[in-house]
Every structure is written in structure tokens, then in C-alpha cells.
TrEMBL record:
This is DELLA protein RGL1. Keywords: Nucleus, Transcription, Transcription regulation. Residues 417-493 are annotated as: SAW. It comes from Linum tenue. PROSITE patterns: GRAS. Residues 1-12 have a biased composition (Basic and acidic residues).
Amino acid sequence: MADQLEFHHEEVKAEEEEEEESKKFNYEEEEEQVFNSRAWFDILKHRLSSSSAAAAKTPESAAAVGSRKLWTNEIIKLAGARIIQSRSSTDGIDVPAMLGDGGGGLNQEEAKDVELMEHLLECAEKVGKGEFDRAIELLGRCNCWASQTGNPVQRLAYYFGNALRQRMKEGTEEVGAEAEQNDDDRKPLESDTAVTLPDEHGVEFHRSVPFYTASQLAAVQIMMDNVVGEKRIHVIELRICSGLPMIALMQALTSSGPTNSIEMLRITALANDESEERFIHGSGERLVGFAREMGLPFSFKIVRIWDSPAAHKDKLGLEPREATVVLAEYALSRMVTKPNRLEAMMKLIRSIRPRVMVVIETEANHNAPDFGHRFVETLFTAGAYFDCLASCMEGNEAARAVMESRYLNDRIRNILVAEGEKRVARDVKIGVWRKYFARFGMLEISVRGLGLQHANLVIRSSPFAGSCLVALDRKSLMIGWKDMPLLFVSAWKFMKAIPH
């Protein structure tokens, strides 16, 4: 299915933006840009133009589209197209190609959902421009149909409406009674949870959503490919999330040959703060127990790097006889607000010279200083997640509701409301990372082969295989939902010398 699909970064403008962003990763002095209606309009048009191009590559008849229920992002696209049609020409946007019949023949629920998304998009525009009176009016219209317990579109609108309400509160103390109605606004904004979900709901999430398992097994296979025949293996994890990749690695090592062929598997987990250290400690205990059951010689160690990462290299206990690999699972994007720390971490990794560095990150642009740009990008990313959870966690509504209200809600609000260092959810796309990694003499290596095969195997064995995206973006693996890439897996080696 997905082996033949490839992505290419097509737009020169997008590449120029990636080049500029990767040069600095310096947001400590960042000032939010004044809302630019034209830019908001352009990013919306770009999203729709991309959809039209994708539809042209994989055409679907109007009859086929009309016979199925539109998924969440199609509702958003149709709402955006209607806004653009009402204000300007639709150059480059082929609505019929994108949605079969251009939105005609919607059932009653879909028609209401499209109208809801129109109000939400227009509300975001007004919030960005500081036109709060009009924004509150539009928010009131959203509240007539948005619901925390409704369909995916209604739930999406509910949480985004709360974020807009809170952003208005941040901008002024008096925005009317309509902006004071939800207690959720008073929850903490700081959220750096990527997929660090140790409770039963997080476990159920990982079990239910196939593309997370696919990405982790692909990462494990890439590490295995680079330690073939080695008896002593050292994995340095920049951040332990679920701990599942290391369990999969243990299983792979013991299934690839006699257990006694592995003299030692060492895992060193880096802790950035005290709360993270406590979580890692619990994960380490589980890994130690799992290794004991498998009879695998195993060592687990936590290294604090609360100040400068480079100052703690000696604590890693590197040994010449070991094959060292690095796993960065949702770790690097957390450092975007601290560019000096990110650079120090990259220099530390380079000095280690691992056999391979495997990176798993969110494939999204949530880092634009312009609010309108961030809103549109986040709406599409969250739309894919809400749609995915509705399908993959059907029958487990309690766990799904917790995932939406805790994890997704926190990230939405952090991206849209927080500014400066408090805005820790600053995902950037793989094109930005490629240019940033080049500064450290890193060479991208292909994930084709067993890594890609493992990802495809997980997806194909899922009941939701037809809704999952597995594709190649140059040498890296892109995984997502429907036509929306959501995360990537890439592999890197360090050149002997940094090119000038």
C-alpha cells in the first residue's frame, strides 16, 4: 500500500521559510507578530490548494464522496473554501476536485458542522485582529453546536472555542460574559506532554492508535539494523515517553538469536527536570522487570542534565566495546524555546558519535509567531487526531474523552494561548530539522527496508489500515491519518567532518 508513496517538499517559499527558521531556533526574545489578515488568508488558501493537488493525484468520484461521510478535515476544508469564495477568487483551489461535488448534497449534520467551522475560523480571525466584540458574537454561534460530547467536529470546535476564549482573556480583562463561562480556562497552560502517558488511558491510546506503534517499531528496527552482530549495546534515550520502544527492542534482541549472545543491553535515560526524573524512574523499574523475565543482561541508568548537557558526558559511561545508538522520541522539539540548550545537546550527541540517531517527531508547523498561521495549522492537525480517536477508540469513550480533554486540549491551548517560553509546544516539520541537522554534519540515511516493512505490517494488520498514511519523504518515514501526515521517523549518522 504505502511503500510506493512519496512526499516531496514542493514549494520554494516553504523551503525558504524552513531555511530561515532552522538558522536560529531563537525565540527567547520573540515578539508575537501583529495579526496579518492576508497571511491568515494565504495559509488557509495554501491548505486548500494542497488538498486539491492531493485529490488530483488520488481522484475520487463525486458519487464516491457523496456516498460516504466527510471526515473532520474535509469539513474544515469545505468551511475554509466557503470563506475564501465569499471574499475573493479561488485561484488554485479546485473545490470540486477536493470534495467531489464541492460540498453539495451534505446531510443535515454535515451542513451544520461546516457552518460551525466557518464560525470558528472567522472567530479566530477576529481574535487575532483584536476585534473581540465580533469574536464573542461568533463564539456564541459556535457554542450553539459545539459540544464536548458531540461528533469529532463538534468536540474539536468545543476545545478550540475554549482556547479562543482564553486568548481573549489574556488580551483584556473584560471581554463579556460569553468569555467567562468555562472553568476549563483556569487549568495550567504549560504543557510539554508529547505522548508521555503513563496511566491506563495512555496505554489504551497506544494500543488503539496504530501509527504510534508503527513509528516505534520502525525506530527499533532502524536501531537493530545498526547493531547487527554486536554483543554490547548502549541506547541513549533523550526522553522516555511510553517506554514501549525499549520493550520492543528487548523482544527483537532476544528473538534475533540466543539470549546469551547479548552480553549487555544498557539504557541511559536523560532527565531534564525533577518531575521527568520521577517518571523515568518508574519506566526504568518496568524495563528492569521486563528484562529479568526475558533473561536479558540489562542495565538502566538516569543521568540528570538539568544545566548544560555537555557537562554530563562523563556520566554516560561510554565504553569503546559498546555499539551506541541514540533515540530522540519527541525530545528535540521541547528544546526549540531554548536554542542554546538544543545546540549543546546536538554537540553532545555529535561527540558521542553514535552508530545511528533515530528521531521521532510531530510533523507539523506549530511554531509560527503569527497567530493566524498557528491557528490554521493546529486546527488541521487536531482535526486529524479527533477524527482518528473517534474511529480507533470507538467503544472506549472514557479513554478517548480523557485523551481529548487532557492531552489534546492542553496542547491546543498551549499553542494558541501561551507566548514566549510558556509556549513549549513548538513542533516544526522535517524540512526544518533537515536544515538544522546539517549544521552538525548529520547525514540522513534511508528508512527503506525492514523499518518501512515493520511500519507497513503494523498498519496493514490494523482494522483502520485504509485510514492510515504510511509514506516516504525523501529518506524518512511519514505516518499519519487519512491524507494528513502527523509524525515522522528519520535516521541520521554523523559525518567525520562538518561541511562548511
